[in-house]
Write a structure and sequence with these properties.
- The radius of gyration is 27 Å and the shape is globular.
- It is built from 15 helices and seven strands.
- The chain has helices at residues 8-20, 35-46, 50-58, 64-70, 79-86, 89-101, 103-113, 117-128, 139-149, 154-166, 194-200, 216-229, 262-267, 300-308, 312-334, and strands at residues 137-138, 180-181, 239-244, 260-261, 270-272, 281-289, 292-298.
- Helix 6 packs across helix 8 and helix 7 packs across helix 8 (117-128).
- By secondary structure, it is of the alpha+beta class.
- The protein has a five-stranded antiparallel beta sheet with strand order 4-6-7-3-5. A two-stranded antiparallel sheet has the order 1-2.
- InterPro entries: Lysozyme-like_dom_sf, Lytic_transglycosylase_MltB, MltB-like, SLT_2.
- This is Lytic murein transglycosylase B.
- It holds the Pfam family SLT_2.
Amino acid sequence: MTVFHATPVFRLVIALGLLAAPVIPPLHAQTHPGQVALVREVARDTGKSAAALNRLLDGATRQQSILDAISRPAEAKPWRDYRPIFMTDQRIADGVAFYREHRALLEQVGRQYGVAPEYIVAILGVETNYGRLGGKYKVLDALVTLGLYYPPRATFFREQLKVLLELPDNHLAGPLDTLLGSYAGAQGWGQFMPSSIRDFAVDADHDGRIDLRNSLPDIFASVANYFAGHGWVRGGPVAMRAQPDSAATPITVKDSKPQWPLEQLEAWGYAPLAPANPGEPSSLQALDGAAGPEYWFTFQNFYVITTYNRSPLYAMAVHQLAQAIDAGVQQADATQ
């Protein structure tokens, strides 16, 4: 057998080759299931530091109270129980006062985006009681919990977590790991999810930052821009009470998207209780009211509100609060 003896030159070549070999860092020991893949995607798509992203996620905590909260949403209540949560004398009075205090800015934003100002105010009233209740959960904890530990809606919430990690710093009201919001990860006075911040939030005060917690111009314009971007019809109707006759055709709808001209619903036995355009694209909602079943024609602008929260109960609460605020503002103006 021939024994090979490496020459000094050969040994040098081997050493240089080893030195030139790529050094592969060990994988980060993930704190949450799916963290490695998520960080890889965000780092690839944004160029952000994987180490910094891992530090953020390592600091997030799975919250059982968030999993409990999402299993019992208020929208599961019947309308007779849901409506009193938002349609209170105090919330209406506070909305009227808020509108009148910020009237110039609200009406300027309303004209710019074609959205009635009372609906901007009503969204803030329903979502955070006009900024008083912004949420108690860390947004990062909420989206980690729902995106990585809640299989029924993991696809949606993981995408929201990814978008949150991808948002530029100037799209947030503060450091990402300090932001507070709802159990679902919505933040600011208008409770925007990360994808809504990305797609619809506006730097209306032109200070180089989108601040949905401290800047009223940004808050108002972002809500209005969201509505306009989803197809709000300037001056269009939202909802109108309907009266069925004894032979009315039962109607089931899967969502609030307008499906028929109003005259078709009339032909099926549902009469409008106020003058209406017979050709207006419409749908029908049946709600379990305090005095029995309530029937409502709903239109494109109602559908737009359901893109904010898909529950028709939510959209009806926003609509009725907006109408009450508008009536209160007009009454206050008339008595001045």
